[in-house]
Structure formats: C-alpha cells, structure tokens
Amino acid sequence: MKKKLLALILAGALALSLAACGGNSGSSSSGSSGADSSASSGGTDAQEPAGSGKTYTVGICQLAPHPALDAATEGFQAALSEEFGENVKFDLQNAAGDSNTCSTITNGFVSAGVDLILANATSALQAAAASTADIPILGTSITEYGVALGIDGFSGTVGGNISGTSDLAPLDQQAAMVKEWFPDAKTVGLLYCAAEPNSQYQVDNVQKYLEDLGYTCTQYPFSDTNDMASVTQNAANSNDVLYVPTDNTCADNTGVIDNICRPAGVPMIAGEEGICGGCGVATLSISYYDIGYKAGQMAVQILKGEANISEMPIEYAPEFTKKYNEAICTDLGLTPPDGYVAIEAAG
C-alpha cells in the first residue's frame, strides 16, 4: 500500500513538472519573437497601415531657435499629431545655429533608428543627407533643394530618401517691392551670410532683377556673427536700401542689423516675415507654419505607406502676403503702399 501511494505521488509530481515546462516554453517563444521583431524594425517598418498600433519615432533637427523655424516645426508636429495622436513621438533637437551640431544630431537619429527625420533649414538637411540614405528625410524652410544638395539641373524632385517643402517666395516680386517702396533709390546692398548657399542663390537672382530695374547693387557677405556687425555697418553706410534674403544667421541676429540700420535711416526689404519683424520695412511673406504642416502631411503619407518619398516633388507655399513693419516704418517716416498688411507684434 505504501509503495502504491509513493508511486502515485511521484507520478503526480512528474505530471505537474511536465505541465510547467510546457507553459514556460510557450511563453518564452512568444516573448522572444516580439522582442526580436521590435528590435530589428528600426526605421524600416515605418510603412504600416493606420490603426496598426505602431508608435512612430520622428527625429527633428532644427538649425536654430527663431520664429520662422519654430513655426515650421510646430506645423510639422501638428500634422502628425492630428493623424497619429499619442502613437507618434518626437525627438526635437536644436543645433543653436551650429552646422556641426546638426551632424551630431542626425547621426544620433540614425543610431536610434528613428522612422523619419525632419531637417529644418539647409544645414540640417545637408547633415541628414550625409547621415543616411535609408531613413526618409523631409526638409522644410529650405529655399532651393538643388542648391542645398548640389544637384545640377534640379527638376523639382530630389529622389532617393529626400523630399520636403520650400520657403522660397518669388524673387522677382521681392525685387519689385524695392521699386514699389523706393523708386528714387539708386543703390541697394545685399546683406547675407556667405556660409549659407541658399542665401547666395537668392541674392544672385534678386540682384539680376534689381539691376534690370535700374539699381546699382553690391553684395555684402559676412562669414559669421563675428564680422556681421562690421559688414552690416559698411552696407548701411554705402547704400540707400538693403535687401536680406531668407538667411538663418540674419534671422537669428535681427537685433544686430536693426541697431545699425534704423539709427542710420537705412530701410531694408526682407526675404521673410521673421526677419522683417525684427529689422525690416517690408516683406513678401509666407506662413512657415503652413509649409511645416505640409511637410507633416507628407510625413503621414510616407509613414502610412501611401507615398514613395523618392517620387514626391518639393512642395511650395500656396500663397504670399505683402507685409510691413509698422514700428520701423513709423520711425523712418515711411507710408506703406496700398495692399500691405501690418505684421502682428509678437506676444
């Protein structure tokens, strides 16, 4: 009887042991498969159907903190958040105006395996393009992609893993604004940062239009913020009017320009609203929020697998508004022509 009881106990213990082993084996297999799938996805599984529950990670490299770039970033995030809600996470990093920092940031995004990169401004785009040929890259606040990326005969579509939106307002219309405001002026100084290729592109083209209108033009490139004030002073001393393109260094240092030009009584036409709001008289304005939002809509299409980034043409602002800086116009005794809207004061 004791032997039979001992045998039953041993048989029961063996059965329980086998059941436990079977359960652990099934759980381990399922967990391992999920972990492997997640770890290997990186940026390559981004194109999943909406509602799949996937959480997207989007890296944002913004060159510098100033109103135009800030607005573009906000618009981009808004478009993605409206579509994906809490299923999209942003890694927003600002390079504080340093191109080398842009490279550090975008290389970090690649190492982290983000699903998509937003490059906000030319230096950020160039850094992202050098960092990866695989992860989708969308640019915004880029004036001319062919110039930024060294593409000869640029036709409007970058190809590869890059597309985005442009902040270019018609340069012939910007030149025409100089004539509209200052028909009696003789000389125009074109002030810009030589380190920004898209600034060079803009001043070269605006100069051609201005010369066709009868103005004598001189370019005033500065290397960086170290010689910016001295070059600006030289430009103000030598010209009736200044023109500044959509230049990130100028946008980040409008106070320097204003402190020189306004006391000297030298007006300036600006390539974008943020610069005009800080130191300009008038601009042909676009909405940076809108071009950022459009880039966000493009990102949604890419992440949902609805569009191939290599086939997506560069998108441009849908409309332009003539705006003027009321405070500076008042100080300089200028009356805006018909059809201009005052720039709203910040805050």
**Class based on secondary structure composition and strand pairing:** alpha/beta
Q: What's the β-strand tally? A: 12
Query: In percent terms, what proportion of residues is strand?
Result: 15-25%
Specify the helix fraction band.
40-55%
Order of helices and strands: HEHEHEHEHEHEHEHEHHEHEHEHE
Q: Cα distance, first to last residue?
A: 92 Å
How many helical elements?
A: 13
How does this structure look, described?
This protein has 347 residues and is α/β, with parallel strands linked by helices. 50% of the residues lie in helices and 18% in strands. It has 13 helices and twelve strands. The strands form two sheets. Strands 7-6-8-9-10-11-12 form a seven-stranded mixed β-sheet, with helices on both faces. The chain has a five-stranded parallel β-sheet with strand order 2-1-3-4-5, with helices on both faces. Strand 4 (137-142), helix 5 (145-149) and strand 5 form a beta-alpha-beta unit. Helix 2 packs parallel to helix 12 (288-303), helix 6 crosses helix 7 and helix 8 (225-238) packs parallel to helix 10. The protein is elongated. The chain starts with a helix and ends in a 5-residue tail after the last strand.
What is this structure, in a nutshell?
The chain has 347 residues and is an alpha/beta fold.
Keywords summarizing the entry:
13 helices; alpha/beta; 7-stranded mixed beta sheet; 347 residues
Reconstruct the topology from this structure.
Layout: H1 2-41, E1 56-62, H2 67-84, E2 88-94, H3 99-112, E3 116-120, H4 122-131, E4 137-142, H5 145-149, E5 162-166, H6 171-181, E6 187-193, H7 197-212, E7 216-222, H8 225-238, E8 241-244, H9 248-251, H10 254-264, E9 268-270, H11 273-279, E10 282-285, H12 288-303, E11 321-324, H13 326-332, E12 341-342
Parallel strand pairs: 1-2, 1-3, 3-4, 4-5, 6-7, 6-8, 8-9, 9-10, 11-12
Antiparallel strand pairs: 10-11
Helix pairs in contact: 2-12, 3-4, 6-7, 8-10, 10-11
